Amino acid sequence: MVSWRSSRAASGSGNVGTMKIGIVGTGWVGASVAISTLHTGLARELLLCDVRPELAEGEAMDLAHGAAFYPTATVRAAPLEELVGCDAVVIAAGKGGTPGQSRLALAQVNAAIVTDLARRLAGLRGLLVIVTNPVDVLTQLAVEASGLPPARVLGTGTMLDTARLRQVLGRELDLEPRSIHAQVVGEHGDSEVVLWSSAQIAGVPLRVWPGWNAAREAAVALEVRRAAYEIIQRKGATNHAIGLVTAALLRWALRGERRVLTVSRMHAGVDPDVDGVALSLPAIVGADGATDVVWPPLDDVERAALHRSAEVLRSVRAAIG
After folding, report:
1. What is the pLDDT of residue 18?
2. For domain 159-320, is the CATH number 3.90.110.10?
3. Is residue 188 flagged as an active site residue?
4. Would you say 212 and 206 are in contact if contact means Cβ atoms under 8 Å apart?
5. Range(s) within the chain of domains with CATH label 3.40.50.720
6. Are 110 and 134 in contact (CB under 8 A)?
7. Does pTM surpass 0.85?
8. HSE-up of 158 (CA within 13 Å, CB side)?
9. In the beta sheet, which residues pair with residue 193?
10. Which of 188, 240, 267, 307 is catalytic?
11. CA–CA separation, 24 vs 160, rounded Å?
12. How large is the average pLDDT for residues 135-162?
């Protein structure tokens, strides 16, 4: 297998990462995950894999040519079997959405792809991160096919939806999005649930924050929920934000930062209405995965909506067979 290696990586100079990270699927999303991950400085070695080997090799060449502009790392194409030794593998392979198509409509075609990959990665010693949509259903399938502990199989889930929510609220209130503490849970898709009742800014409930009108909640939730559709309508795919989300998830997890993130994982013993499906709830994420799920405060409307979201995902999983 051809390898492209920066001279700085060979000399061992610079702030060298210590992790080996693999990415399966080097289309729009996989490429964005790759460049964002390199910029974190986390990876010592980034391995790219694709059903089209020449595409993975081309991406590796292209990324390696930028070695002077990111922390030292080796980038190369590799067969799937080699990725079993990685600290984390990201699955970004599969068919992307088309204008007007729901994420759940992708379930059948992408289920076979992710199931096959997860089976072949059954011996993975690190984390398995699912990005391909519908991410929640495919996270469940990846657990079932790989046999890996559920805590070590994470979907990016509603991390992106939560980031979109905070960005929209920041725009509305003229605030830095990182100062806004608000979450989206449930499906990464049309049944997602915004937790308005617990949203805060500097410890102050959003609903009493000066300048915020609760009548805007429905419109903001719709904008967040429709964001991917609007982007796909205009450019054909969403890739940059999810690339940043995935790289951040890898960085926080593999560094053992134990951040609370709205990742998707299989649930058991959390709540009877969500147990047995993968969906997003706040979870403490570290080097050993999403180990501790944090049940958030919910009002009656939010609880009912979360249960509906679980039922949507349960029905899709059942339909796949």
Report:
1. 82
2. yes
3. yes
4. yes
5. 15-155
6. yes
7. yes
8. 30
9. 185
10. 188
11. 20
12. 98
